[in-house]
Amino acid sequence: MSVFGTSRPARSRGKVWTGVAVAATSALLLSACASGEPDAGQEESSGPREDLTLTVGTALPQTGNLAFLGPPEEAGVAYATSQINEATGDTGLTLDVVYGDSGDTDNKAYETEIPRLLGEGVSAIIGAASSGTSLQFIDQVTGAGVIQFSPANTSDAFTTYDDNGLYFRTAPSDVLQGEVLGNLIAEDGNQTLGIIVLNDSYGTGLAKYVSEAFTAAGGEVVAEATYNTGDTTFDAQINAVLAAAPDAIALITFDEVSTILPGLFGQFPADKLYFVDGNLKNFADAFPTGSLTGAKGTLPGLSIDSISAFTGELDAFLEAEGTPALEDYSYAAESYDATILLALAALAANSTDSAAIAEKLIEVSGGSGDGEKCETYADCAKIILDGGVADYDGISGPITFDEVGDPTEASIGIYQYGEDNNYSAYEG
């Protein structure tokens, strides 16, 4: 089976909202400065050092209710790995990747995959995509002294989680996406809102922030119906929300949305439906033409210019590997950046020890505030090997980890569905 998943056509990026938690960031960066300095007596070496072979595992969704995110995420990891290994002669670092399936909390693929990955002696595991799934094995991974690095976890639960300083993510907390989506729904003139929500840390957390933003903008949440992972029928949730006669409905789900939508067609206007990163994808011929025209959704990510250059390179890489192009690029950039950051941190630490790498991740992301800006693995590696401090600005954004491994800056894109049931940039 190809680690890159199935073939899908490309899509464009859209209007971007950017948020920076200024006050909180300032305090956290001061803490990061203190933790990012070399230990007393520690010398920074320059030039190539001993050869390093860094082994990283992935626990990304090849199956389950986020399986559509698996191909772009694995492709991002694979593309970054190819660039890292192209530079091995100059850096002395080789990256080996062991691909694995996170599954979801219903099929529980992680129960066998995480022990397998840990048995391979990995220094880090990239994944899962789902916050709820990551929470099922974070203790197992960080308890084993291994880094867990998610490209897509957005639950606020991870900000305060006791992870021994071994958990990082390139995706922003749901606080920002919830604020953007809640305000978007209100700005579209909707006064009442119904929500259908996946009952896990991702769904309920994001629903909370959407509700808070919508209410603060003067709206009222009139219905919120939840369901559990593994549920296959949603009539009760649909009926409960429709009975409240909301102006708009937010669908905070994973791929269950494909089963939920037919129950809304003909009963609720498509242009009053709102999607989130867990279900925003191209539906093409899955539904009758025009079924989703005007529906909107949000997705963490950078501007169309930045991401289009990357996705073009990614498509060329996949073609050269004999793998079909992707339909969707959700979290491909975040996965790419996670892989690059792990390699740079290993170089900076001159070690493949997980704890040593974790100590350098804030530094190479720019969290210590004293590094030299760089945008490619090769350029950043050269800075490190010349005895300097690299500050990697990635494809997904500046990243800049705070002291708990959260990015301190993020962008949220807004998209809209057309007659073909595919989404593209929202230009409103």
Q: Could you characterize the architecture of this molecule?
A:
By secondary structure, the protein is α/β, with parallel strands linked by helices. The chain folds into two domains: 221 residues, Rossmann fold, CATH 3.40.50; 142 residues, 3-Layer(aba) Sandwich (Rossmann fold). The protein is 37% helix and 19% strand. Helix 4 packs parallel to helix 5, helix 6 crosses helix 7 and helix 11 packs parallel to helix 13. The N terminus is likely disordered.
* Class by SSE composition: alpha/beta
> Which residue ranges are poorly predicted, with pLDDT under 50 across at least 5 consecutive positions?
1-48
Beginning-to-end CA distance, first to last residue: 41 Å
Annotation field: number of helices = 13
Shape: elongated
What top-tier CATH class of the largest domain fits best? Alpha Beta
Strand count, sense and barrel status of the largest sheet are: 8 strands, mixed
Question: What gyration radius follows from the Cα positions, in whole Å?
Answer: 21 Å
Number of strands: 15
